[in-house]
UniProtKB/TrEMBL annotation:
CDD domains: RsmI. InterPro entries: 4pyrrol_Mease, 4pyrrol_Methylase_sf, 4pyrrole_Mease_sub1, 4pyrrole_Mease_sub2, rRNA_ssu_MeTfrase_I, SAM_MeTrfase_RsmI_CS. SUPFAM superfamilies: Tetrapyrrole methylase. The keyword rRNA processing applies. It comes from Campylobacter subantarcticus. GO terms for biological process: methylation. The keyword Methyltransferase applies. Its EC number is 2.1.1.198. Residues 1-201 form the Tetrapyrrole methylase domain. PROSITE patterns: RSMI. The gene is rsmI. This is 16S rRNA (Cytidine(1402)-2'-O)-methyltransferase.
C-alpha cells in the first residue's frame, strides 16, 4: 500500500495517531527532502517515545519524480510505502499529485491520510468563508505573470487563499492595496508554531503592521471576496468601467472583451 501522510506544519502535536501508526508500519519512505524527513522522524520518535525506523529514505520531488517513476518496476509498490512532503498535505502546493496520478493509472492501492493543511486553517481563522472559496497556492514570483495573478486574485468572487514567501509578502500586500485599498484581508505567519501571528483588517492597516514586522517565516493570506460579485463569462464593458481599479488594469481587462489594444482602451478611459 502507498500512503500519503500529512506532516505537521509547525506543531508536532498535530500529527495524527493514524499517521504515527502508518509511519511505524512502513519500511520505505519517499520524501520531498530526505534531510527534512529524517529530522521529523527523529523528533517524532523522541516526543512520542516511538521507534519509527524505515530501512530506506528516497528523495522524490517535482524535479525527479517523472524519471524515478519511469525506471521502477511495478513490484516496487507491493510493499508498504509512506510518502511525506516537507510540511502539510502532499499534493497541495507540495509534491505528491503526480505520484497519486501514477497510482491511479497503474492500479496501485493508495490511501491519503487526513491531517494538517495551512490553507484551510487560514480560511477558517479568517471567518470570510460562508460556502465557496478559491485556493490559488503560490502566485508567480516574477512579472508580468505575477501582476496578472494578483489582478485575477482581486477579481475573484469568493474568498481566495494564497501562500507567499517572506521575500514577497510585503509586495503582495502593497499590490493589493493599490488595486483596492478598502479590501479586507487576513494574514497568518508561522501557523501553529510558537510565535504564530495573525491579523484581519483592511489592507492598508495590514500593510502598516507588516512594514514593522520581521517577515521571516511562512505566510498565508486570505483575501475577502469583492463586494460586487460578478461572473467573468458575462462581464460587459460597463462593468469594467465601474470597477475601482487603476486605469491600466481596466484597459487590460477591456482588451480581453472588445479586442482593442490596451493602449487604445487606456486612451478612451482617459477621456471618459
Amino acid at each position: 500500500m502507498l500512503y500519503f501522510i500529512p506532516t505537521p506544519i509547525g506543531n508536532l502535536n498535530d500529527i495524527s495517531f493514524h499517521s504515527l501508526e502508518i509511519l511505524q508500519k512502513c519500511k520505505l519512505f519517499l520524501c520531498e527532502d530526505t534531510r527534512v524527513c529524517k529530522s521529523l522522524i527523529h523528533l517524532l520518535n523522541e516526543k512520542f517515545n516511538l521507534e519509527i525506523k524505515p530501512d530506506k529514505y528516497i528523495a522524490l520531488h517535482t524535479h525527479n519524480e517523472k524519471d524515478f517513476l519511469a525506471k521502477i518496476d511495478e513490484i516496487f509498490f507491493e510493499q508498504d510505502i509512506a510518502y511525506l512532503s516537507d510540511a502539510g498535505m502532499p499534493g497541495i502546493s507540495d509534491p505528491g499529485q503526480f505520484l497519486i496520478e501514477y497510482a491511479i493509472k497503474n492500479n496501485i492501492d493508495y490511501e491519503v491520510l487526513a491531517g494538517s493543511n495551512a490553507a484551510l486553517l487560514a480560511l477558517v481563522s479568517s471567518a470570510f468563508c460562508k460556502k465557496e472559496f478559491i485556493f490559488m497556492g503560490f502566485l508567480a514570483n516574477k512579472n508580468p505573470q505575477r501582476q496578472k495573478d494578483i489582478e485575477n486574485l482581486m477579481l475573484n468572487p469568493y474568498p481566495s487563499i494564497v501562500y507567499e514567501a517572506p521575500t514577497r509578502i510585503l509586495n503582495l500586500v502593497e499590490e493589493i492595496s493599490k488595486i483596492d485599498p478598502l479590501r479586507e484581508i487576513f494574514i497568518i505567519k508561522e501557523a501553529t508554531k510558537k510565535f504564530e501571528t495573525k491579523f484581519r483588517a483592511g489592507v492598508l492597516e495590514i500593510l502598516k503592521k507588516i512594514k514593522t514586522m520581521d517577515l521571516r517565516g511562512e505566510w498565508c493570506v486570505v483575501v475577502n471576496a469583492k463586494e460586487k460579485q460578478f461572473h467573468q463569462n458575462i462581464l460587459c464593458e460597463q462593468d469594467i468601467y465601474e470597477l475601482d481599479l487603476p486605469l491600466k488594469t481596466k484597459a487590460k481587462l477591456l482588451s480581453k472583451i472588445n479586442a482593442k489594444s490596451p493602449k487604445e482602451n487606456y486612451q478612451k478611459l482617459l477621456l471618459s
